[in-house]
Amino acid sequence: MTVYKKGGGSIYQFNRINVKTSQLQLFINYLQQKYEQQLAEIEQFYPINWYMEINNHQIWAPSTTLAFTHLGKRQLSVCFLLHHIEKEINTKHSITDPLLLKNVSECFVEFLFLHELKHMQQFCNGLTLKQYKKLGSYKTNPYEEQATQFALETMKLAHPEKFELLQFILNKGKINHLNESKWQQHFIDCK
Description:
The protein has 8 helices and 5 strands, in the order ββααβββαααααα. The protein has helices at residues 21-34, 36-43, 82-92, 98-124, 129-134, 142-158, 160-170, 180-190, and strands spanning 2-7, 10-15, 48-53, 67-71, 76-81. It starts with a strand and ends with a helix. The relative contact order is 0.14.
């Protein structure tokens, strides 16, 4: 896609690239292997059914929902709404560098994965859906705060070079032609 931006009397042209659901799916498969030990501990309590919904036809969820964990009868269901995640990344950011897009996508998806991993652990520690719903909305629910903090702390330890990027993304920062070179330089400096 070619996008034109006006600035200082000039028109800048850049070729934006997009992440694909297939790339997201491959990375989630990789994360399942990376966090295999933690998942094995959870599966001692509940088997895990993984769903990677590509087109949102089978599972309805608001467009703001990117992933969720559900405790059913004796099993956990973890769903990643890949179409929603793809849309979140591609509409929010205008990235031209494939390596930067890979870093942004993987950073964001790993954060979501770790957030859901914490929810799985919460269910294994006795949390019920009824208890969860009693504690208010998504934004005020302490279980959501715990999951977010766990994901942030884990990312900071595992990927200190990506932590600043993750904070920027989670604080509604947008990567575009104005700041893309800053983030490219950030990863060069971290090497």
